[in-house]
Amino acid sequence: MPQEIRFNAFEMACVSHQSPGLWRHLDDQSFRYKSLQYWIELAQTLERGLFDGIFLADVLGLYDVYGGGPDAALRHAIQVPVNDPLLLVPAMAAFTQNLGFGVTVNLSYEPLYPFARRMSTLDHLTEGRIGWNIVTGYLDSAARANGKTKQLAHDDRYALAEDYLQAIRKLWEESWDDDAVKADKSGVYADPAKVHAVHHHASGIELSGIHLSEPSPQRTPVLYQAGTSPAGRRFAARNAECIFISGPSKQVLKGRVTALREDQRLYSTSGKPFLIYALATIVTGETEQEAEAKYQDYKRYVDAEASLALMSGWTGVDFSTLDPASTVQHVENDAGRSALENITRADLSRSWTVSEVAQHLSIGGIGPVFKGSPQQVCDQLEEWQAATGIDGFNIAFAVRPETFKSVVKYIVPELQRRGRYRTTYPAGTLREKLFGCARLPVPHTLDSRKAS
Amino acid sequence: MPQEIRFNAFEMACVSHQSPGLWRHLDDQSFRYKSLQYWIELAQTLERGLFDGIFLADVLGLYDVYGGGPDAALRHAIQVPVNDPLLLVPAMAAFTQNLGFGVTVNLSYEPLYPFARRMSTLDHLTEGRIGWNIVTGYLDSAARANGKTKQLAHDDRYALAEDYLQAIRKLWEESWDDDAVKADKSGVYADPAKVHAVHHHASGIELSGIHLSEPSPQRTPVLYQAGTSPAGRRFAARNAECIFISGPSKQVLKGRVTALREDQRLYSTSGKPFLIYALATIVTGETEQEAEAKYQDYKRYVDAEASLALMSGWTGVDFSTLDPASTVQHVENDAGRSALENITRADLSRSWTVSEVAQHLSIGGIGPVFKGSPQQVCDQLEEWQAATGIDGFNIAFAVRPETFKSVVKYIVPELQRRGRYRTTYPAGTLREKLFGCARLPVPHTLDSRKAS
Fold this sequence. Notes:
The structure is a homodimer of 452-residue chains. Chain A is an alpha/beta fold and 452 residues long. The first copy, chain A, has helices at residues 36-48, 71-76, 89-94, 112-125, 140-145, 154-174, 230-239, 250-267, 288-299, 304-315, 334-344, 354-360, 374-388, 402-417, 430-435, 446-449; strands at 6-12, 53-57, 100-106, 130-135, 198-202, 205-209, 222-225, 242-245, 275-284, 369-372, 392-396. In chain A, helix 4 (112-125) crosses helix 6 (154-174), helix 7 (230-239) packs across helix 8 and helix 13 (374-388) packs across helix 14.
């Protein structure tokens, strides 16, 4: 049987995630992001489409690089206002049985001990369907709002992340033995001899205590990662089970996949292969014409200032100071130029202006838009998977929830007809569904790195 | 019309809350505390009974005073394992329309900026039904697990709480103007001129940023407090909207209510009267005989070690070192003795042994147990309310969910027949239901205390 294609939904508890301006489309329901009912309906749609999960992005700061302040972000609701993603999960879980939940939490601002309990609680309440997208943040505004003058340097953040993960894994995996909980009405609830205090003292983490939650179905949530820098990739290779990547072309993605798999061979602590999902947006309908009409309609809502505010936050370059007609090569900031070149690698045969780049990423961010009839979209999905070695796609929305509804209505059945998409969920927890194993493998290297 | 009696349910995301040993009763479903379904069913029961809300207790540490370690607490599941209470709310909210949610969060271990967003998110998702029970913690084990050698001194914790509350109130009340969000599909989402960064620098709080969430229905959650020390009472008088108290007799409760109302007159920042709920447990059935049989049956499950482990955590006295037959007067620790005398004030005409005290608080904690037919229980409720000046009761369970089910089945209808209980929910948010006002009144004194 040919390789299956996997789907995740890429979402965020805000108005405008990665399609700046499109919240104004008449069909768009982004203004409902504050309502439980929106998330419940969405979860049911995705579960009907047998998605692996919903992946919830997050930021704890503002896109305030553009124009030197948050005004443009506020006007266009560029990831602000933004609500806490963890709190969406219990309600979505109550209305689904199989959908996974990959939630972004920035460890820089989460005290470890209560956060460990929070994730265990979610793993209990979802009966083992929780995942954690480990991030260390990229916005200086988040650091300032949280009482720091600026964030840690990039590589230091990953060093902290390694220690944080090692410490929290002790709470999840080592504090309670598998048979610690008896819950025996004629005897004891837990056997104290099988519950252990764990200790970790490194990177400013001072942990000494037993885990407050009893073992949850997965213990450690499924670990997701999305870093693309060398430090981020090594962290992912060492620790992640699922990886989200983005890139504008098959060539770019293939290079990333190859590098990730090589890093994994070198650095993986478990030897377990990870799953790689690439960002993509799908615009489809009954026919090619219908899809093309939708796409042209969507493009009318793209907003240049909104796009540039998003790009400025990502790249650290204040695009309000640049002529929109200037080419990317003139951007005088290494990080910014490399970010922009990254976007424009889709077509290296021409030069790109700033406004063209903004237009280009305005539907679904830095990833391809697959548009056309269900057959045409499925052809592209198969082609991209074959050319890059990815396991599936992380699907961004153009217009919500229409993008997800049309994927479930048109694309899933067509992929199923082609034998490229499952027709039922596997049994068990999220980790069992994804990998057929219940527990996070014990890292080979953990013993040698154990802190006092 | 005679004064209404109000009900809250006193719950916790753990096995054994305040009725040590009773989780072993055959009818008890405490082992389901990890399941969404338990909480959803409970919320539906309480809403059927027109309860003001469910009040979720929490601890972030262990009851490890008894025997110098957590063994007894683990054996009897004395508030360990314990899950995060906030995450129960979204699922309960999805299945109810009117029930309020008062959630305990210890501010000592919650970074202010993300916590402010978490509560705003809950206020959005519940459509304005969230409350916050402000605590500063009483367990040294929580401090140690969170990287501190011990907790702050008691009065210092309340000084921190004042600053924390002042800072977080700025995020909730002052960052976004009422008309900042336009959500206008033909224009902007938010008007940047109406969104303001707030600043607070005091007590180690370093806050500088705009609130990440747009204004939620209540903005500030309804503020609950349960402190009984002079510092705790003053904090409550200044800030709280609802107060939970406990005491073993009408005399004791009356003294507390009088002191609280006097403190409020002296210190309140808003002038708005607060609601006072007193802890109580109800054991009832069709008839007096049925209730008495239930009560005698429950008493068989009381466990001395479990009770003493709970008492040791509350009082700081290690009861494993004392002869159970010794009288309370022999306890050599001021805080412990005063806590125990507090419990035994129900009957000052006799001396109490340690084991008698343990037995006495084993069903529902330091509060009365009202038992009998619906008529008998309602007589007691009316009598206690008339004698003490409380607004209602915070109902602990003996056996869950049976205690709450029988209150809804027997007590609510009898109180309604007597014209002492509402027959429908008022409209609006939790604050509107409780007080008829939408917003937290602006504190008179805030201006003069404003930090830089």
